[in-house]
Amino acid sequence: MQANSYDVTVSTFPQIIIEGSKEKPVLVVFWSPQCSVCATLLPFLDKLHNENNQAFTLARINCDVEQQIVSHFGVQSVPSVFMFVDGQGVDGFAGEQSEEFIRMFIDKHTPDPSLELMQQGQTLFAQGKLSEAKTIIIQATKLDAHNNEIKLALAQVYLALGDHESAKPILEVIPMVDQNMIYHSLISQLQLALQSAQTPEITALEAQLETAQDKMAIEYQLAIQYNQANRNSEALALLYKILVVDLGYENGEAKKTMLDLLATIEDASLVSEYRRKLYSLLY
To answer: How many domains does the chain divide into?
Structure first.
């Protein structure tokens, strides 16, 4: 039996449906083994239950067995489906319905799990728990990759962590219609972060790189400066460029520096990308 999915009896009805619906919505389906529509509906409801990360409780009532409950609700046909919220039946339908109708019916009464995760992340953010907030909000983006509100919440966390490299591509793809006050505030923070990341040392090295004979030496110094300014993708790109030409550059110091960065950078996708690239050179 999967979690939050029950075959309800008279004795368990109050706990599962009345009390349970005060914690999360409960979808109650009255069914019969003799009903052909029920044979299709029940597995589909199981599927939706899992797709929604069990955002609602699924309660099945066998009308051939639980006549007392059937009589209490006055159920006259199967399948009959009711949604309970806060101890009360708030909506329902009977008979065969399209999959689209059933999905819309459930979505209308159940919380969006991606938004719930985003709200949890924002609570952690307000508490100063930035790493935990980032982990939770990234999970929310995986559930709904197109929600720009969640993207802005993630960009906000990245900026607070000083990871403007991760925040920048998120903000660049926010469409005009969703460029609200939060967006403009984050853009301002990003611009300030980028300005502060352009240190005098980086500016000087970038200028030297244009005319230097020994470009690799400048690139190595610049990679270190990029890392110190939290411009990690640029740092890794330069180190990889050096190692492609000379894997043992500076008696192995360039390789050691890259491995050190990969061990400390929190951006999992960036680390994974450059670990693959480095290992392809090593092996």
So the answer is: 3
Clarify whether residues 238 and 276 are in a common domain.
yes
- pTM of model > 0.85: no
What sign does the dihedral 32-37-43-45 (CA atoms) show? negative
Average pLDDT, the chain: 91
Domain that holds residue 140: 113-197
Pick from 215, 231, 212: nearest CA to 223: 231
Please report, rounded to a whole number, the percentage of residues in the chain having pLDDT higher than 90. Answer: 72
CA 35/CA 40 separation, integer angstroms: 9
Q: Is there a single domain that holds both residue 77 and residue 31?
A: yes
CATH assignment at residue 273: 1.25.40.10
Cα–Cα dist 186/283, whole Å? 42
- The answer to whether 89 touches 82, Cβ cutoff 8 Å, is yes
Are 137 and 56 members of one domain? Answer: no
Residues 6+ apart with CB under 8 A from 175: 148
